[in-house]
Amino acid sequence: MKLQRFAVAAALIACAGIAVSAATNATFIMTNGQRVSGELVFHGGQGNNMIDNQLNLGNAGKEQSYPMDQVAVIDVAGGNPSQDELNKALSSSQAMALRDGTVQSGQFVNIQNGNTLIWRNDSGQEQRYGLDTVARVYLNTQSARQAYNFNPTSAPSGSQAVGTSGATAGVARARRSGNAYVVQGNQPWTDTGIQVNAGDQVTFRVTGRIGTMQGQPTVGPEGKTGETSDKYPMPSMQAGALIGRVGTGAPFSIGTQQTPIQMQSGGTLQLGINDDFFGDNTGTFSVTIQVNGRSK
């Protein structure tokens, strides 16, 4: 019996060794620019890395949890991403870059058993990828732009980035619904294509609601009462509020403001969401715009 127990114990140890050796090393690039590296540990019957929206890394026998909304990128391959990868990945709220150069927008679901990425594509289908084929997972593209000091070049073919209206790559193209511009809650910035000049008086009329966190009430263009953050484009404004900017200039408040706003510079007018994580945002704002009394 002792021999049998020893054999069973040895088998369990061997299995544990296999699980550990199958796990993958990765670096978390945090939204504040910090980088932490370790092994993608996993727990539970499904071998999940993310538990209760916490991503987990092991290092030197110790495990540390990191809130998902504080992780900008899961870097599996290491090194610096190519400009082409950044152009494609940073045009979405979340993206997965494979080592063969393919970039796919969608939504991160989890990492299982330390070696498999679960990804939900734009059609809502869950897909599985071996981490040995994955280069990086972009969870928060706005923070990733800062982490990689992103300097956009021409927009990649087939992306939503705008390259002809003065906007940078990584900005969604606005669609029209009647006279209104539709602003998606899960996009940091939306290019209206409207050219404004310094001194122009622009009036905004906003309807609609967006969700900024799963399970929480939706908010209007004024944002979520009392929720501000230094990580937002406008730290003094509330989470989810509608904001604007001209080109890549400083953002300005829109919200529910009814009086005209004077433009401080000339360029393409963009509309944005005051937030630092867009992966779980839902809903839209509809915005009608008048420039010096002229409907656009």
The helix/strand class is mainly beta
Number of strands: 21
What gross morphology would you assign? elongated
Profile the largest sheet. Answer: 10 strands, antiparallel
**Helix count from the secondary structure assignment:** 3
Proportion of β residues? Answer: 35-45%
Give the termini distance in whole angstroms: 84 Å
- Strands of the largest sheet, in order across it? 4-3-2-1-5-10-6-7-8-9
The radius of gyration over CA amounts to 22 Å
Question: In the residues, how many domains can be counted?
Answer: 2
Helix content: 10-25%
Spans where pLDDT lies below 50 across 5 or more residues: 1-21, 153-170
Mean pLDDT figure: 84
Give the SSE order as H and E letters: HEEEEEHEEEEEHEEEEEEEEEEE
Describe this structure in words.
The radius of gyration is 22 Å and the shape is elongated. It has three helices and 21 strands. Helix content is 12%, strand content 39%. A ten-stranded antiparallel sheet has the order 4-3-2-1-5-10-6-7-8-9. It folds into two domains: 2-147, no CATH class; 172-295, Jelly Rolls, CATH 2.60.120.430. The protein is mainly beta and 296 residues long. The protein starts with a helix and ends with a strand.
Q: Any key phrases for this structure?
A:
296 residues; mainly beta; Jelly Rolls; 10-stranded antiparallel sheet; 6-stranded antiparallel sheet; 12% helix; elongated; disordered N terminus
What order do the helices and strands come in, and which of them pair?
Blueprint: H1 2-22, E1 25-30, E2 35-40, E3 54-59, E4 62-67, E5 71-75, H2 83-89, E6 95-98, E7 103-112, E8 116-121, E9 126-130, E10 134-138, H3 141-147, E11 172-173, E12 175-177, E13 180-184, E14 189-196, E15 201-211, E16 242-246, E17 252-253, E18 261-262, E19 267-273, E20 282-291, E21 294-295
